[in-house]
Every structure is written in structure tokens, then in C-alpha cells.
Design brief:
With 311 residues, the protein is of the alpha+beta class. Helix content is 45%, strand content 23%. It is rod-shaped and about 175 Å long.
């Protein structure tokens, strides 16, 4: 029986043979086993990673996408709501533009029809009017804001034009109110007794200049202001007896004499048709009547040009 004393063995010739090939085979088998075990471990780890990815990351991504979808829906809903409010605001502005421009146009037409103002005088080169034709709205919010700003400027411009028209019409109404018109007595309650111009003086029979018109009537009849103005004199005059003088502005002044009683005071503002005094026969007079004069820029003018106009 051979005894193994070292890592070698004898062959038939009595020589020693090494056992390393067997050991190498064993090592190869062991390495393969280890590689297989590592591969199996890797597969298991990868599967666990895949399982983890499916359960955690994908769910998180899905949750994020759901949140993004909700946010987009909110944005779209808010955008639609804001666009609706913006459209309503634009429509409101347009209605104001239409109203102002229509008012401006009507006022200008009234002025032209009445012949009380020239276009050059009013300088209405920029005044406009007519129907408003809408333009399709742009979907871009910035474009809508541009439209709003344009409408605001249009409203501002039209408002200025309307303000100028209103100022002109107010001035015209004031001019009309302060311009002598009509008779200083109630129609049908008094009559014309002496015209403006040369006449025979009732006291001395001489030809004299009568710088007013006389209206006779019952004693105590109302004497009326022929235009709005400020009372500048209310007292006694040598020739006219109790006299009232009214400054109407724009160069016009009216005088009323021979009253029985004065009903206004100096500095008082009066309106057309207001009672200034009661008819009498004070001063140089032959009977109850009112002597009526009109002065323009300090000079007497014939009141007849105002008499035929209605109060």
C-alpha cells in the first residue's frame, strides 16, 4: 500500500506525478458555483428594485401627474372666469363709449341746427359719433388688455369733448337767459302806449327823443325782468321816479321806471320774468305805466327788437 507523503505520486516508471489539474478543476467548479450564486443574488436584488420601483416611484409619478392635471384644470377654469370678467369689463366700457359719443354727436347736431355755434369756433375736428361695430376678441389676454386701455383713452377723449360741448351750451343758455327778451309786463295785462324814438313831449309839447318804450296798465300791475341779471340800482330818480336798473352781463342793461313800489334790492340776482316792482306813476309821468329802456355797452338801443320775442 502506497503512502501519500506529499502532493505528488509515482507513475509506472517510478516517477512522481503532480495532482494540480484535479485541484484546478475543483477550483473552476467552485468559481462557477460562486458566480451562479452571485448572479442569482443579483437577479433577486434587481427584482426587488423593480418591485420597489413599481410600488413607490410609479405611484408617486402618477400622483404627481394627477396633481398637475388638477392644477391645469384650475388654471383653465380661472382663465375662463377671468376672460369672462374681462369681456364683461370691455363690454361695459364700450357701452360708455357709445353713450358719450352719442351724446356728443346729438349736442353738436343741436348746436348746428340752432345756428348758435360754428364748427371752427368749437373746434370739433376730433368729435366722432355713429354706431359702434364690435371686433372679435383676441384670445391673448395681453391683446385684451390693450383693447381695454384703448377704450379707456377713447372714453377720456369723448368725455373731454362732451365737457366742452356742455360748457358751450351752458354758456349759450346763460347768454340766452341774460339777453333781453319779451315785454316787461304780463301779456294782455298792459299795452304799448309810447314807442322808442322821436315824439311830442307830453308836458311841454316839444319834439323830444324818447329812449325807451312805455307800457300802460292798471296801477299795481307787476313789472317783470326781461332777462336774468343783477340789480345795480333800486331807488328814486328825478325823471323816472322809483327806478330799477338790472345789469344782465354781456354788455346789456335794462331800466324800469315810474313804479309805485320796488320789490328788489341792489345786488340781488333776478331771473327772467321775476317781479321787480309794481306799476305806478311816480316821477315825470301822466299815469300808471312802466318806462322800459335797454342799453348795450352803455348806449341806448330800441327795445322793440326784443319785444316780439316770447317770454
Amino acid at each position: 500500500m502506497a503512502v501519500l507523503k506529499s502532493s505528488t505520486t509515482r507513475n509506472s516508471l517510478g516517477e512522481f506525478k503532480p495532482i494540480f489539474p484535479l485541484i484546478g478543476l475543483l477550483l473552476v467548479l467552485l468559481s462557477a458555483l460562486v458566480a451562479w450564486w452571485l448572479w442569482l443574488s443579483h437577479i433577486q436584488t434587481t427584482q426587488k428594485a423593480l418591485d420597489s420601483l413599481d410600488e413607490m416611484v410609479v405611484d408617486r409619478w402618477k400622483a404627481n401627474l394627477d396633481e398637475y392635471a388638477r392644477q391645469l384644470a384650475d388654471i383653465r377654469r380661472d382663465s375662463e372666469s377671468k376672460n369672462l370678467l374681462l369681456a364683461e369689463h370691455i363690454a361695459d366700457l364700450r357701452s360708455k363709449v357709445i353713450h358719450i359719443e352719442a351724446a356728443t354727436s346729438r349736442a353738436y347736431e343741436v348746436i348746428q341746427a340752432a345756428g348758435i355755434g360754428e364748427a371752427a369756433e368749437l373746434d370739433f375736428k376730433k368729435a366722432v359719433g355713429g354706431p359702434y361695430e364690435s371686433i372679435p376678441e383676441a384670445s391673448d389676454p395681453s391683446a385684451a388688455l390693450v383693447r381695454v386701455e384703448a377704450l379707456l383713452k377713447r372714453i377720456e377723449h369723448s368725455s373731454l369733448e362732451l365737457a366742452r360741448l356742455t360748457e358751450f351750451l351752458d354758456q349759450h343758455r346763460q347768454d340766452q337767459a341774460t339777453r333781453p327778451k319779451g315785454r316787461p309786463v304780463i301779456q294782455g295785462k298792459a299795452w304799448l302806449s309810447s314807442k322808442y324814438g322821436e315824439r311830442v313831449d307830453p308836458f311841454n309839447g316839444k319834439i323830444t327823443m324818447h329812449r325807451g318804450m312805455d307800457f300802460a296798465g292798471p296801477k299795481g300791475s307787476p313789472v317783470l325782468a326781461v332777462a336774468a341779471g343783477i340789480v345795480t340800482y333800486a331807488g328814486t330818480h328825478r325823471d323816472f321816479g322809483l327806478l330799477v336798473e338790472v345789469d344782465h352781463g354781456n354788455g346789456y342793461t335794462s331800466r324800469y321806471g315810474h313804479h309805485e313800489e320796488i320789490r328788489v334790492a341792489v345786488g340781488e340776482a333776478v331771473k327772467r320774468g321775476q317781479t321787480l316792482a309794481l306799476m305806478g306813476s311816480t316821477g315825470r309821468s301822466t299815469g300808471p305805466h312802466v318806462h322800459y329802456e335797454v342799453l348795450y355797452k352803455g348806449k341806448h338801443i330800441n327795445p322793440a327788437q326784443f319785444i316780439d320775442q316770447q317770454n
